[in-house]
Amino acid sequence: MKSALITTSPSRPESWRDLPVGDNIKTLIELEIEEASRKFFGYHLVRLGNLSSEIELKSCPIKHQVNITPNSLSHSSIIAKTSSLPITENSVDAFILANELDFSRDPHQVLREVDRAIIPNGYVVITGFNPFSISGLCKYLPINKGNVLHEARYFSCARVKDWLQLLGFEIIDVKHLLFNELFLNRKLKSSSKLSLWCQQYLSVLTTMYIIVARKREIPLTMIKPKWKTSKFSAVGVSVSRGAMQVETPLKREK
């Protein structure tokens, strides 16, 4: 297994249009996470990265949504590195990371920043490319060399889930979707019978996955010490006093 930390940052897409059939992938992701976004509650939602900032959450009850991108874009709210967020601790109610880990130099640090900034019981949604899919195989083939997907990291779903669980996140839901090699710009057929059958029975080979997790923190409870106290008995006291009187020698008068 290759190290998650690399020396140079991979080239990242500025928009979904930089990816093959990117607009269709964006629409598919929005439909899949629409139900999960209804459960978000709070005041602040952060869409982290270039691709995440274009995800629309029409059913999300959180109205204040901030887009953090590493470079200036038309829809950017804050320009900052995703590995060093200018956000105070425990202040964000939900995070969206649409394939952000796939184009990060240090995905561990990105998740650590999310863990630092998210509130207890806050939600995080992560989408990623599956390395065991046809698309993951095409990444290493000389197909469409100018495709930015050759720069993607392709972390497995199981690996990302392990990272989240080590940080104290509970995995709420995992969805596997899409069967497409992506490198040939073929039209998506996500609703076809073959695609739906593969998603159900060959989920390990799907092109993408979506992880919905929630930050869990077990509150500390004070354990009160159990003091051992002797039981008071009036009968015992009287008996012991009587014993003392018997043992005390009587003084005779001369």
Task: Characterize the quaternary organization of these chains.
Answer: single chain
Average of the residue pLDDT scores: 86
Strand segment tally: 7
> Helix-strand pattern, N to C?
HEEEEHEHHEHEH
Quickly give the structural class.
alpha/beta
Biggest beta sheet summary: 7 strands, mixed
Distance between the termini: 104 Å
Task: Give a structural overview.
With 254 residues, this protein is an alpha/beta fold. 26% of the residues lie in helices and 19% in strands. The protein has six helices and seven strands. It has helices spanning 22-37, 107-117, 134-138, 157-166, 193-201, 234-247; strands at 44-48, 64-69, 78-79, 92-98, 118-129, 169-177, 208-215. Strands 3-2-1-4-5-7-6 form a seven-stranded mixed sheet, sandwiched between helices.
Supply the key terms.
single chain; 254 residues; 7-stranded mixed β-sheet; 6 helices; globular
Write the layout of secondary structure elements.
Blueprint: H1 22-37, E1 44-48, E2 64-69, E3 78-79, E4 92-98, H2 107-117, E5 118-129, H3 134-138, H4 157-166, E6 169-177, H5 193-201, E7 208-215, H6 234-247
Parallel strand pairs: 1-2, 1-4, 2-3, 4-5
Antiparallel strand pairs: 5-7, 6-7
